[in-house]
């Protein structure tokens, strides 16, 4: 394990700011240190951080081409032109389509939506989708969470008299599609203050601009924020700035009055009586929405999100839950096959990345498989299969290696590619596979340092058990919602001892239930160390050890307790490395 320290870099000025914040805010200096680490150094900025406000959302018309998009949509509405909302088949795309459709259906019935089939059409804008638009009399397509590279497809639509508005959040190429509007904060000419919106977030900004331009009160669109929160959490975009505000209020909506479709998913996940968090979306709600596009048709997810009755939502949620069960079985089988193949044929001592291919693997789960391989082998993984005559696949990466740029460096031998720093997709001809493998491995050998292939824990602050109390936990909760670039802080406590009651628990006793004290208190603190029962003998021996952990409140049998979720237990390396 490699331990990284986020708190050694505080300057003298920052330490002074930390002390001033503690005095003005009346919160622990440790939490003020976390604020400084997040770039928050004044009490005014801290107030905004702890009290996210919808008033702090940016003007949607700062996004490139937003004014053109609004004029074209208003023309379509005024002339009763048929509009098709087109989106990707993942959570981000389907929530984006559902959000914009829900808003526009208040003003027109001449409206439709389209999700491409992952297997027949592949990612992004397809000719089949454009042909469907032509057949159904569509004059305007609004593409969400895709389309930024669809130069040829937009030209194909234009030749048929169909206009395009593209609302995307992926990296654009040098040449943009010839659409009426190309809304993307990552455009090089963008002046928008925040570039990390999800695809659904871009859809919400489109709706916000329409509402603003037509004197519709903002309160009329806040009920759509539940979908934005689901997209932000599922697409693993930073939960900072505008995303944090949107997610904060989206979670409020989910927990107070979710849409009927989401209510169906919440029920099937067993979350009805729970305060739903970002983690619940990532691990329970999001995978079920995703399962529709992975296993069957992504359009079914939109059908569910637009459900008008709870009975309909429950039925559609049950179907999607079955898809998710099938997805899990398939994912496990293919992951096992991939691991067996790697263990049998790959010399990991000589490899800094993995590129594996099997034409029989199911396209819908190879992204998940890539994630599992990256987690297991601590190397970037590209998992490929065959679809529509091309080799197609997904890539996942380790911290510090930009897999999108690595794939982009091979673009001359690729048919298509796209994605983000740590997750990307690509397709190529079979004759280019060997060359791609060679180039990708060469890039990884050059750019990946040995420590990047070891498990790492980033520790945010030191803490004693005496400092952990209900006020500390309450103040810490103000940092939520947690996610990329605003992670749940990891604390370290030194010289901890077993209270004498720690024990292995769980199936096959693989987990370790901890009751501990340190030098500052004789009252035991509860912790759980998942899959770390191997430390039991050391803990039980009475010798001191160090722990790093996150903190949460845990409700059990109606009683609220403070729980330490222990990431790692160490007998000296932690303190030695610091």
Notes on the structure:
The protein is α/β, with parallel strands linked by helices. 41% of the residues lie in helices and 20% in strands. The chain has 20 helices and 19 strands. The strands form four sheets. The protein has a five-stranded parallel β-sheet, with helices on both faces. It has a five-stranded mixed β-sheet with strand order 7-8-9-11-10, sandwiched between helices. A five-stranded mixed beta barrel has the order 14-16-17-19-18. The radius of gyration is 25 Å and the shape is globular. The two termini are 13 Å apart. 45% of the residues are buried. The model has no long low-confidence stretch (mean pLDDT 93).
Mean pLDDT: 93
Strands in their spatial order, largest beta sheet: 3-2-4-5-6
Secondary structure category = alpha/beta
Outline, from the CA principal axes? Answer: globular
> Number of DSSP helices?
20
């Amino acid at each position: 394990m490699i331990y990284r320290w986020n708190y050694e870099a505080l300057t003298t000025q920052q330490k002074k700011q930390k002390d001033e914040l503690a005095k003005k805010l009346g919160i622990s200096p440790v939490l003020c240190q976390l604020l400084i680490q997040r770039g928050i150094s004044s009490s005014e900025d801290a107030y905004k951080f702890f009290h996210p406000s919808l008033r702090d959302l940016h003007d949607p018309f700062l996004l490139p081409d937003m004014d053109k998009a609004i004029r074209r949509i208003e023309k379509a509405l005024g002339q009763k032109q048929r509009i098709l909302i087109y989106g990707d088949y993942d959570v981000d795309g389907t929530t984006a389509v559902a959000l914009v459709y829900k808003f526009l259906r208040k003003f027109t019935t001449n409206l439709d939506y389209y999700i491409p089939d992952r297997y027949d059409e592949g990612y992004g804008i397809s000719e089949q989708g454009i042909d469907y638009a032509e057949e159904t009399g569509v004059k305007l397509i609004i593409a969400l969470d895709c389309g930024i590279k669809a130069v040829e497809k937009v030209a194909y639509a234009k030749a048929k008299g169909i206009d395009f508005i593209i609302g995307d959040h992926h990296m654009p190429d040098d040449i943009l599609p010839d659409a009426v509007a190309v809304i993307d904060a990552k455009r090089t000419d963008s002046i928008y203050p925040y570039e990390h919106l999800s695809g659904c977030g871009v859809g919400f900004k489109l709706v916000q601009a329409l509402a603003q331009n037509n004197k519709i009160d903002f309160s009329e669109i806040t009920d759509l924020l539940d979908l934005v929160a689901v997209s932000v959490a599922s697409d693993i975009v930073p939960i900072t700035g505008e995303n944090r505000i949107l997610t904060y209020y989206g979670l409020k909506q989910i927990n107070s009055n979710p849409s009927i479709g989401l209510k169906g998913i919440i029920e099937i996940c067993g979350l009805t009586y729970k305060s739903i968090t970002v983690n619940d979306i990532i691990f329970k709600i999001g995978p079920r929405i995703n399962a529709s596009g992975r296993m069957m048709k992504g359009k079914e997810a939109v059908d569910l999100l637009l459900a008008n009755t709870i009975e309909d939502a429950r039925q559609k949620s049950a179907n999607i839950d079955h898809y998710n069960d099938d997805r899990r079985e398939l994912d496990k089988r293919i992951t096992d096959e991939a691991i067996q193949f790697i263990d049998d044929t790959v010399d990991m001592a000589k490899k800094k990345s993995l590129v594996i291919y099997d034409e029989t693997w199911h396209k819908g789960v190879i992204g998940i498989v890539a994630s599992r391989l990256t987690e297991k082998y601590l190397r970037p993984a590209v998992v490929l299969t065959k679809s529509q005559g091309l080799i197609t696949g997904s890539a996942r990466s380790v911290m510090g290696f930009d897999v999108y740029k690595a794939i982009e460096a091979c673009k001359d031998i690729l048919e298509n590619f796209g994605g983000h720093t740590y997750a990307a997709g690509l397709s190529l001809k079979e004759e280019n596979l060997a060359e791609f493998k060679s180039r990708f491995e060469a890039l990884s050998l050059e750019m990946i340092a040995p420590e990047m292939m070891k498990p790492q824990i980033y520790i945010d602050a030191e803490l004693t058990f005496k400092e952990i109390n209900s006020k500390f936990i309450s103040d810490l909760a103000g940092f939520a919602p947690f996610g990329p670039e605003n992670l749940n802080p990891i604390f370290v406590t030194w010289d901890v001892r077993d209270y004498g009651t720690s024990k292995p628990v769980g199936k096959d006793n693989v987990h370790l239930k901890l009751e501990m004290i340190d030098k500052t208190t004789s009252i035991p603190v509860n912790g759980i160390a998942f899959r770390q029962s191997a430390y039991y003998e050391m803990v039980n021996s009475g010798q001191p050890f160090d722990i790093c952990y996150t903190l949460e409140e845990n409700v059990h049998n109606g009683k609220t307790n403070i729980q330490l979720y222990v990431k790692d237990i160490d007998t000296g390396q932690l303190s030695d490395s610091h």
